[in-house]
Each structure stands twice: as C-alpha cells, then as structure tokens.
Request: fold
Amino acid sequence: MTDTPIERIAQALPRLYPGPGGAAAVLRNGEVLLRHAWGFANAEQRIPFTPRALFRMCSITKQFACATLLDRLSDPTVLDDDLRRRLPLLEGVAPGSLHLAHNQSGLRDYWAVAMLHGSPVEAPFGPEESARVIGGTRSLHFAPGTQYSYVNQNFRLLTEMLEARTGQSFADMLRGGTFDQAGMETAFLAADTHAMPDGTEGYEGTHATGFRPAVNRIHWTGDAGLGASLDDMIAWEKHIDATRDDAGSLYRRLSAPVAFADGAPAFYGFGLARGAEFGRAVTGHGGALRGWRSNRIHVAAERVSVVVMFNHLSDAHAAMLDLLAALLDEPRTTAASDLPAPDWCGAYLDPSTGLSVRIDAASPGRLRLRFGHSAETLDLNADGSAANVQTRIHPTPQGLRMRRVRENQSTLLRPAGGSTRIDAAGRYACAELGAELTIANAGGALYGAFSGFLGRGRMELLDPIGPDLWALPCPRALDHTPPGDWTIAIHRDAAGQATGATVGCWLARGLRYDRIGGA
Reply:
C-alpha cells in the first residue's frame, strides 16, 4: 500500500476497531482506491479474511429487496391487497407495500415482539415463528405513512409476497436480477444465520474480554439475508456509478425522494437511509447481527462509495466515517462547546409513544439521551437546546419539547422524576399478544421477565426511572442491535393498587398489560 490518508486509516483499522478480522473498500469515479482485508474470517480454523470471504451483510439486504421489488413490479402497490390478507387480525387501516419499503408501516418489529413472547437469545426463529408473530398483529403503533420506525419484517413481507406472486424464490430473483446486473458473482441469499459456506464466522466479545463465535439461529429473507464478499460489494458500488446518469436505473429509483403522508420529507425509503455527512447528501445503510457489523455509504455528488465489514461488534459506521473523512479531506470530529449541563436534564415520559426519556450529562458540552434504539449524544447549543442530526430537545414555556425529525414526530415531554414504588410485583397479561410480563420483588429489588409461546425470558433487574416508571434492560436479543430498554409504566386504581402496565420500546410501542395475579 502507498502512504495516502485513506491507506493510513485502513492500516489503522485493526487497532482502532480490534477484532478477528474485517475488510474495507473505497471507490471514487467508479475506480477502486482501496480494497483491503485483514485478520481472520475464522480465527479457530485460521481462515484468512480476504476480499473474497463471504460475509453477512445483514440489513444492507433491504435495498436489494426493494431493488427486486422495483425490478419485478412497475407498480408495487399491486401487493397492497396481498399484504392485507397476511394481517388477518389487524383492526383498522392496513399499511400498503410502499409503507413497508419506507419503514412507515406502523408495525411493531417482529424480533422485538419475539422477546415479549419470551424467546431465549439464541433460540431458533424461522418461518413458522415469523408467520405466527406477523399473523398475530392486531394493532399498529402509529397510523401508516405518518411516522418512521424500523421494522425488519416489512422487507420479509415484501419478498414473500413477491415470491407468491411470481412463483420464483427470492434467491433466484436476486441472482437473475440485481446480482447478475451488477456483476456480484458470489453474492447469494444466506437465509440460515447459523453458518456461512466458506467458514467465515462472526464473533461476540471484545479485545479485553476475548472473542467467541456468536450463535445465531434466525432465518432471514428480504430483511437481512444477503451474503456477499467485499468484491461483490465493490461490484455493486461500481454498478451504481456506471448507471448514475440513467434515471431509470435501480439505484436512482431506490434513492429518489420519499415523503410522509403529510408531505414532510422522509429520511428512509426503499431500504436506504438518506442523510448528510460532512455537508454532503448521502445514501446508505448499516447491517448488524450478533458477531457481524457492516456499513456502506454513497455520496452521489462526489461519485464516492465506502464499504466496511467487521466479523465482530466494533462500530462499522464509525470506521466508514473515518475513511470517508480521509477521502474528502474533512475533519473527523468537531469540538464541543463548554456549556454546562442544563437544569432540565432528568427523566421524562414521551406521552405519544409511552416511552421513557432519560437525559444526563455525557461530557463537557454534550448530553446523553436514552430514548430510541440506543443512546444518542446531543451537542449543547447557545440557545439552550441540545441536538444532533435526528433529535432536537429545547425548553419552551409549556415544557421540554423533543423533535425527532427523521421520525416525523414532535412531543412535549412529561416530567417523570421522583421516588419509585416497588409494590408492583405480579403477573401481567397482554391480550393482544397472548403473552405475559412477570415482575418479582426479590429481596427488595424488582426484577422482570417476559414469557409467551417462544419460551420464558430471563429475569432482569429493573432500573427505576420515576414513580411507577421502570426500564427492563434487554442487552442481548435475537437481533443486533437488541431492542434496548423496555419501558414499563405501571397503572394503579384509586386505592393505589397496581392494575396493569403499558410496555414498549422504540421498535414495539404501546402494548397494554393487565395485572392477573401475584408473582
């Protein structure tokens, strides 16, 4: 390798993001500037990680599912009636196929819901379990088209409906469509997450604690099933550049502007996130499963693409930004202000979602927000607000307001601080799911766990947030990233007795549980 800024970053990646192995590519104007792999695809069998090693691209699959949809159907809405039939118990308005493609369906994510059904972390989750969770849907957590929420089964549903309508498997449609068009010679549908055919392994753990092979037993389709090498992904990025001037090309159609029902611009559509990095419009996506992390980004105006793959849980998105910043000659980070943490830090409830909102100091000039899928860092501003690219929190005469621009949501938060009560032990049943929540007082500390048709989840220590407001942590789950913390809001009658709870996380909100007995 020569001594360029990109190659210096590439050489540093194994130390900056330590793990068994990885690969990265950088392209500009359709030419490969970096094609680099390091470490081992399988550390136990000493299989090197090369640009030809097969990798689980995980949710990067979603754009390929939508590419297949657009390639096969001139009007995807012909699937709308098919979708209604796959949700036989749903009350009210059903989402349409484009709501699925844009993550505006209002469905609760099925891997999150699986945890409410008591699924063990490393349990099988295949077509039968998938069909039962999806088919059991009785309500949505928002009206279709009004908001954004990440939902994996949106893309499973799209590809399953395509299979039923065309009589072809998704694997065959991929091979005869996007894969062949882009020259992705070794890409395939890796539906079984248990093993890769060339022995490539994904790993849990850290450099400090040691790495171990991650156990996954999910069956994937259009949601996350793509298996591909770095060379396959380079071919995809080259194809994007080669067809950039064709308005009818797949990537041009995938990355076209998308809006919510109220006309507000949407930041996700057809399996692609839209956003900005270093002042430039970008499209891209990340991918993750336990043991696997990947990220790809395309900067159309610069004709630049970056791809990063780790067979461990280091931050592939951050590594991608390192390479992109080096290529564009941009500073990687900006300095924070020295503003002190505001007095409105604390615990709140978002009444529109039923989720807890926790805000505290992270570092000088920055706050930590715990609300969505994972914690976020907000920069403090001179006007008294705190913000990042997707969230702005600011005080108003009416109270603290949180705006989530990517989700098309703005909410006045309700303070939730204060001492907690621990007289909430009992069994709580969710009629919609046919599942239970158990809260137990174990020596003066509350623990909680979910159970249902998938099993009995492990007991977790509840984190007190405010009066009758608790967080049940979910640090490991079927999927990566896990749902995060579940908010449990206890309901009481006039006598102060616990009668029920509202349970939710960002991926699956607003589920009512009624107390049915003691723990």
Summary: The chain has a mean pLDDT of 96. The first helix runs from residue 5 to 16. Residues 71 and 446 are 52 Å apart (CA to CA). The radius of gyration is 23 Å.
